[in-house]
Amino acid sequence: MGRVKPKPKVKKERQIRSRRPCKFCKEHIDYVDYKDDKHLRRFMTERGKITPRRITGTCARHQRILAAAIKRARIIALVPFVREYYR
Amino acid sequence: MKDYECAVIFAPTLAAEVLASSTKRYADIITSRGGELKETDNWGKRSLAYEINYHREGFYCFYHFKGGAEILNELTRQLRIDETVIRHMIVRDEFKGRPRPEPVREGAEVETVHLEDAEEDV
Questions:
Q1: Which residues of B16-42 are buried (b: 16+ CB within 10 A; e: fewer)?
Q2: Does the ipTM surpass 0.95?
Q3: Using a CB-CB distance cutoff of 8 angstroms, which residues of chain B are in contact with residue A41?
Q4: Rounded Cα–Cα distance for residues B117 and B122 (Å)
Q5: A23-75 in CATH: which number?
Q6: Is this prediction's pTM over 0.80?
Q7: Which residue in B40, B41, B76, B115 has the most chain A C-beta atoms within 10 A of its own C-beta, making it the best mutation to test that interface?
């Protein structure tokens, strides 16, 4: 039984994308209003999930503030927890 | 005394007078206990993002006030008992009387239009 030689690993070349600037930092916003559901929805997927930082480019600090606002908006039904299409 | 923001959703089935008296009741609870009611923000009827007690809509009302723990306790107690209220939430007001920036609305249309289209399919 000959052991199969492990294939040499091909290193995948990662796409280097330029870092998107944080929208909140750019506009010097230090508070995200949970009542502004239209704004919050821009940072959510269609299913109602919070869009990850790597996609929106939001900085860590503002992502935390944003996530808290979205969670508040969910409680008072301004924004969905989940949106299911076929019920 | 701290700044708070109280969001209340009333049932959509309420008559105008009942709604008016209910909204006033919570304002009275705040003011009668030494709280300072800064602003009430009445949004009127609005559709909910998900069903609450089989309601798809609700009357939104926001109270911005300054008060102590006693007011908070009484407010939550009353809001929980009240059957005209389908949801409520009290949070710290992070503005503390500072002017509120205008809600960011630019570019919002693109996605919301999309979402509303999807809703019709349900």
A1: eeebeebbeebeebbeeeebebbebee
A2: no
A3: 108, 111-112, 115
A4: 10
A5: 4.10.640.10
A6: no
A7: B115
